[in-house]
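Pipeline run #58 for the internal structure catalog. This entry was flagged by the ingest filter as a single-chain record with no existing model, so it goes straight to prediction. Upstream metadata was stripped on purpose; only the residue string is passed forward. Reviewer on rotation: M.T. Logging verbosity set to normal.
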Amino acid sequence: MNTTVTFDNVSRFYGEVLGVNRVTLSIPPGITSLVGPNGSGKTTLMNMMAGLVRPTRGEVRVLGISPNEPQRLCHMIGYATQFDSFPRGLTGQEFIYSFLRLFGYSHDRCVKQAETAIARVRMTGAAARKIAGYSKGMRQRIKLALAIAHDPRVLILDEPLNGLDPLVRNETIALFREMAHEGRHVIVSSHVLHEVDQISDQVILLSNGYVVAEGQIHDVRGEIKDHPMQVWIRCAQPSVLASKLFEMDHVVEARLAQDGAGVLVKTRDADRFYRTLNDLAVNGIELEGVTPLDDNVNSVYEYLIGGESR
């Protein structure tokens, strides 16, 4: 069985407006975050995975299934959009049950799977209440329950953490990790970049319809050669450390902190830099802490996009 979600030279135009252009991706199981500002192409990619939008050119396949096979695709994916749209007057339980009936499941199976999905998003206590009375966070969770109710292999979630309080957010992230551990795809869109660092196995950075970087964030950061990496080092002998680091050709700056407690270093070769630190530590420089200051999605996005992120 094919275990990837693939885009093969995919473009999508809305008239003369570019949605995405020349996207080639192979997304493995795990948690993948689509990152970019509004209008960067995240929702277009998700809609194409779900078969709601067809490529202008190129091919999309979800675990080997084409969007031209909607019945098979529907069983394979669960999609929670960022938009709220619920049948009037239904409770949470009735909403999930009605969805499952569309698959032709028996009454008993629909009841059981609806209860299981609602329990996984911790909404059992509100299942008998009408959705019209739900808060934003509760509506987000019932949409997630809908997406997972039929046990899909691929979850496509557009801004799923919006509107969640910190406790529920942590519970939801834990659920994503649990489902990824089960071998599923959890594909999440976000423009809240610090969240992406917390949850992602890999990231896909988008800007103006183009994929500008992809992979594990540390690997993506390592591919950037034009921007020095910043590292903060706390040590007992900062001036001695700074003078030794200045001797290294890959170090472009070593600046003492105002409080005298450490050194801010910029290097063009992180691997060589860390090897150098190891050698210095072995030879008597006492290091108290080493912290990469920009080895994260936010900094990578700022570097690649030039400050578009928001």
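catalog note: The mean pLDDT is 87.
catalog note: The CA atoms of residues 121 and 171 lie 8 Å apart.
status: ready for reviewer M.T.
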